[in-house]
Amino acid sequence: KAGVTQTPRYLIKTRGQQVTLSCSPISGHRSVSWYQQTPGQGLQFLFEYFSETQRNKGNFPGRFSGRQFSNSRSEMNVSTLELGDSALYLCASSLSDPRDTLYEQYFGPGTRLTVT
Amino acid sequence: KQEVTQIPAALSVPEGENLVLNCSFTDSAIYNLQWFRQDPGKGLTSLLLIQSSQREQTSGRLNASLDKSSGRSTLYIAASQPGDSATYLCAGRNYGQNFVFGPGTRLSVLP
């Protein structure tokens, strides 16, 4: 079974631009979460979706948005990029509902975003 | 709000040694806890998931325990190998909330 895939793997953008990152979960998984990982802040939660509904949202500005489609694929968008948005963006999927104790996350390889 | 810490931040051991990595959390109402490893520049690999009703989980040379009353989880690695070198992260979750990750322990196993 294929794992979580993320596209693109690497991205270089300029300050002020916007970017869209894509995540395809493991087949059959209906939950998708997004995280930002930086050396200084570690792994920080962005959003969580289950069956197209946003279940949780992290403490990020409104420039960060996401959505999930009916096939469980998810996208996140960052508008008006800032230098501080440079990070590894990780997507994780789960078979279970986020409210289930069996909720176990499987991560993709990430998208490395560099903002210049 | 759940907070997760990990001690030590880095650990270097000779091959073959048994070792313990620690994870502490502030809210004992933790719903489940998951351990991961991350190789440099890569995504996270799930190692073990412990549900709130469980005390421990085992997979091969790995054993993870959960003590909700003391706010601690430990990951025990038996007979460490150079291939175990990675950063190990724990993440805890309360009901209806997202996973909160610790900062990780960077492990080096020397041949």
What does the secondary structure layout of this molecule look like, with pairings?
The complex is a heterodimer of chains A (about 120) and B (about 110).
Chain A: E1 5-7, E2 10-13, E3 19-24, E4 31-38, E5 42-50, E6 53-57, E7 64-68, E8 74-78, E9 87-94, E10 106-107, E11 111-115
Chain B: E1 4-7, E2 10-14, E3 19-25, E4 30-38, E5 44-51, E6 56-59, E7 62-67, E8 72-77, E9 86-94, E10 100-101, E11 105-110
Parallel strand pairs in B: 2-11
Antiparallel strand pairs in B: 1-3, 3-8, 4-5, 4-9, 6-7, 7-8, 9-10, 9-11
Summary tags:
heterodimer; A: four-stranded antiparallel sheet; B: 111 residues; mainly beta; globular
Q: How would you sum up this structure, described in words?
A:
The complex is a heterodimer of chains A (116) and B (111). Helices cover 0% and strands 52% of the residues of chain A. Chain A has 116 residues and is an all-beta fold. In chain A, β4 (31-38) and β5 (42-50) form a beta hairpin. Chain A starts with a strand and ends with a strand. Chain B is mostly beta strands and 111 residues long. Helices cover 0% and strands 59% of the residues of chain B. In chain B, the strands form two sheets. In chain B, strands 2, 4, 5, 9, 10 and 11 form a six-stranded mixed sheet that branches. Chain B starts with a strand and ends with a strand. Chain A binds chain B through residues 4, 33, 35, 42-45, 48, 56, 58, 88, 90, 92, 98-99, 101-110, 112, and chain B through 31-32, 34, 36, 41-46, 49, 51-53, 89, 91, 93, 95-104.
| Quaternary organisation | heterodimer
Q: What pair of chains forms the biggest interface?
A: A-B, 26 and 27 residues
Total beta-strand segments of chain B = 11
Helix and strand composition category of chain A: mainly beta
What is the overall pLDDT average of chain A? 94
